Amino acid sequence: MGPRPEFGSPGDLRDRCAVAPLRPVLGAPGHEDGALVPDGGWMPPRPPPRT
Predict the structure, then answer these.
(1) What's the whole-model pTM score?
(2) d(CA 43, CA 51)
(3) How far apart are CA 43 and CA 20, in angstroms?
(4) How far is CA 15 from CA 10, 12, 26, 27, 42, in A?
(5) What is the pLDDT of residue 26?
(6) Distance, CA of 8 to chain centre
(7) Measured between alpha carbons, how far is residue 47 from residues 15, 43, 44, 50 in Å?
(8) Which residues contact 18 (CB under 8 A, 6 or more apart)?
(9) Residue-averaged pLDDT of the chain
(10) Coil, strand or helix at 43
(11) Phi, psi of 38 (to 5 degrees)
């Protein structure tokens, strides 16, 4: 089974995106060659508080 996206619609993906510098990965374990990953001090956005 190949990679599976963790979103259901383009709107869901847009809601999870943040601006971050990217770098391509080559020869790193756990990543496909050419994958783009955050570079620098990027941190994932915090989930919204539960109400």
Answers:
(1) 0.42
(2) 24
(3) 9
(4) 9, 5, 28, 30, 17
(5) 92
(6) 15
(7) 11, 12, 9, 9
(8) 42, 44, 45
(9) 76
(10) coil
(11) -60, 145
